[in-house]
Amino acid sequence: MLPWCRTLVCMMASSGSFLALMNTQNKLRTLVPNFTFNLGFSGKFYHTGTDEEDEGDDMLLKHRKEFWWFPHMWSHMQPHLFHNVTVLAEQMKLNKQFALEHGIPTDLGYAVAPHHSGVYPVHAQLYEAWKAVWGIQVTSTEEYPHLRPARYRRGFIHNGIMVLPRQTCGLFTHTIFYNEYPGGSKELDKSIRGGELFLTVLLNPISIFMTHLSNYGNDRLGLYTFESLVKFVQCWTNLRLQTLPPIQLAKKYFEIFSQEKNPLWQNPCDDKRHKDIWSKEKTCDRLPKFLIVGPQKTGTTAVHFFLSMHPAVTSNFPSPSTYEEIQFFNGLNYHKGIDWYMEFFPIPSNASTDFMFEKSANYFDTEVVPRRSAALLPRAKIIAILINPADRAYSWYQHQRAHNDPVALNYTFYQIISAGPQAPQELHNLQNRCLNPGLYSTHLERWLMYYPSGQVLVVDGQELRQSPASIMENIQRFLGVTPLFNYTQALKFDEAKGFWCQVLEGGKTKCLGKSKGRKYPDMDSSSRMFLADFYREHNIELSKLMNKFGQPLPTWLREELQNSSWS
Ligand code: A3P
To answer: Is 297 in the pocket of ligand 1 (CB under 6 A)?
Structure first.
């Protein structure tokens, strides 16, 4: 019995050299059952060659049923050059019309974009048009996450389209003669016989290669390479090679590599190749320079509000669906892609001096966020605001009561936080929301795995409440925004609100809304004691962590540690 199956699929662009192609397919079929070339077509170039080439086109079409087919672009244009999805779809429709007129099957669900354009970095318009015109379900690229190192190439799923990693086989449009192979023909042979190409097939359960028709004309290096490769693999390994149609192949891929389904978006401008296939209408300057990550109920709205007063600082456009926050990195929004994310930010008038940011308060304690944000925004600065986690828990409970949450209305705070394993699930849900974000050291440690400590600032939320001007000065220095904005004059304590507010012209104040800085009774002493106990170890860990990366301890943490050493 053979331990594994390997799947090998080849893809080509159309025109000419028909007989050699057919010959290659037949030979490979004797070695790999059902081996079938998947041919790409750009209909605009049909019958635009020499007489011989035109004849080749006709022979290909006559024998079209012998092959699988996938659409390229009508005129081989790069999709990322089309900003308008309708115009892009129109181009695709021309190619589809061509396919229908010539009886080329249109239902394989697979497409390839010319020069990798639009697949990764994702050009959302391409995915939309592919689905609308062709019902595409699968594509492939060499660019995710990067072209090199080739062994790190991976797949992902976006907008319902499965993107498979495509391998490189060493054959390109310019490598058409054996004796003129770069570095000498021995390089090609080395790659086939135990070198890079052999290892690619050996180490990848699914390999997709794309060659050009010129590799089947001239010295027929396509035929030579793949026949030799398959024979070498079969001679020296016990791998069994097989071919699958694209959709089946993609399903198999994501069965094997199910953890790859979720993409990890990166900044397109951090890779020269990616930048070159990134629409000129898009800019990487439309990404935030810093994030306020939460957690909820610590004063995040106040910091957001105060920062927005700064002339050089700009927040995102509000999102109507998630209480103004974008909440991109934590949930389903992430799958909408970075085009969607960037739409929330204006194009800065001066990218080096303008500071764009977003605040999503559930980033802090959501496990996937630091990894995702560091992939897209590796140089971003991260601000977390921490208050006594006991007060945070109580504030969340009061927040839920204010929103008429039946659990919060029907149970006391103590009942919620102390609920044991037998308590109803709904109680546990609220308990988790009260307690988990306050496990500060665990969450902060995760952020520090992905960001250098110099890029992370912990703000004392209690100080923020009492003397916001000095906290805002710290934040500005940490961010490096200029000029320093003087919050001493810009903020004023509002007796009626009981909090600091913005001073407007004429001396009036503008405070945060009713839902921020609520009035509610003090926490009962049993809950306070319960929570002091609950968070003791976590607070000690937090103090160690902060000492380690050289940040001063928040006042509430010092008090809490002192109290616990006396008790
Ligand atoms: P309470 O309403 O429980 O007092 P967030 O914006 O992260 O949800 O945090 C809300 C908390 O911010 C409020 O919780 C309040 O204590 C705190 N806060 C700090 N400074 C504030 C300010 N200037 N105005 C209103 N609330 C402020």
So the answer is: yes
